[in-house]
Every structure is written in C-alpha cells, then in structure tokens.
C-alpha cells in the first residue's frame, strides 16, 4: 500500500486543475485545490500541511511566485514546491521565489512523476 501524499494544486484554470489532478491521483496523492496564490497561502495560514505543492505562475489576486515567497516565509521549508507555467521566464521567477522544481506547461506525467516519487521516497525514510 502506497502512502498517499498530501498535494496542494494551485491553478486558476479549471481545465488545468482537472488534467494535473488526474495525474496526481495516479501518483497516489490526496489533492486539495486552490484557484490562486492567496487561497494557497490561506491554506497554510490555517495550519494545513502538504507534502507537495504544484503551483501555476500567473493567477488573479496573487501569483504563484508571490505565494511561494509567503509560504516559505511562514517556515514551510520542508514542503516540495513545483512551479508550472508556459512562460519562458517562469523558471527563474519560481526558483527566485523559493520553488524546488519547475515543470513547463503543458504538464507531462513523465516529468511530474519523478518529482512526486522523490517526495514519497523522502517520506519513507
């Protein structure tokens, strides 16, 4: 039995949330959804804990990188944060904000899966 990871998926687009959710479910993740960076930050403020956060870049109210800066500042240093975007300069924005990894959109399972596996392996040890 694989232990399920708690995943927070942050994306403004419903279609993207559906696509990435189904991937995460296939990787045995229990998924919480947020529509923008502020909702994601609020989840952490409320004391929710996640093993992995998959976060889009450009969203209304608060962008992905802005949210990551705030989440890291709260002391959530152990959670793996993966930025996703179709923008050319997105990787720098995410890494500068404190993300661990970056996946270009459209998200492909073979790129996301090893990142999830890494978190599963870390939890086992």
Automatic annotation (TrEMBL):
CDD domains in UniProt: REC_hyHK_CKI1_RcsC-like
GO biological process terms on file: phosphorelay signal transduction system
Keyword Phosphoprotein: yes
InterPro entries in the record: CheY-like_superfamily, Sig_transdc_resp-reg_receiver, ST_Response_Regulator
Keywords: Phosphoprotein
A matching Pfam family: Response_reg
SUPFAM superfamilies membership: CheY-like
Modified residues annotated as 4-aspartylphosphate in this record: 56
Domain Response regulatory: 6-120
Protein's recorded name: Response regulatory domain-containing protein
Organism for this UniProt entry: Aegilops tauschii subsp. strangulata (Goatgrass)
